[in-house]
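Chapter review: from sequence to fold.
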Amino acid sequence: MRRFRTSMAVALAATVMFIPTVAFPQTTPTTSSAGTGFDATGYVAWLGGNRGGVGGDTFRDWFSTGLWGAGIGRYWTEHLKTEAEVTSTGRGTLVSFEQVPGAEPFSRAVYRNHAYRLHTLSLVQSYQFRHNAWVHPFAGAGLDIDWERRTTDGSVQSVDSVGDRVIVTSDPLPREEHTEVIARAVAIVGCKAYLARHAFLRTDVRASIHDRVDHVAWRFGLGWDF
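The token string follows.
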């Protein structure tokens, strides 16, 4: 958990430090963000998922995986924008284990490997700061609808003694597959930095919340105003 918090602190610091690093000789770009209009962005990202309490004890509560996606935004004013996005993740894994009661004096435990994949539809309302500038910090909040698939492969591992010999066995359990749809609140902070009249870079950090912070993503993207 300490390592994850350190990673998030680095991500937030890098996002903030990114703002002053983009410098251009021009001072007043003409973009859709100066009034109403649209923009579109493609993303790649690192995502961390919190699944502590998935069952038994876990060696760690967070998994990490890659994420990619795309979104389109509609500017209602110079500062207010509504965004719709779709994203998918790679495969993130966690391992859990639990001791089987009554197995003493020998050892018997159930080990499970949990694999997660997410497909998400997001709707976010954001506020973009500054007027007609090359770099625009922004903050927003909204809703994630996650289609979450979990695949679990398990085995019962036993350590027994026969005479002077120690025997270790592993018996596989049937695979379990589960899919559920979960709505999560989302908060986001980042910046949009223009490379040219319509082209821009975007980076942000977003957190998805249900009963706790379930996902944190650090994203980078390229986009276009139109």
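Two observations follow directly from the output. Helices lie at 2-18. Residues 55 and 208 are 22 Å apart (CA to CA).
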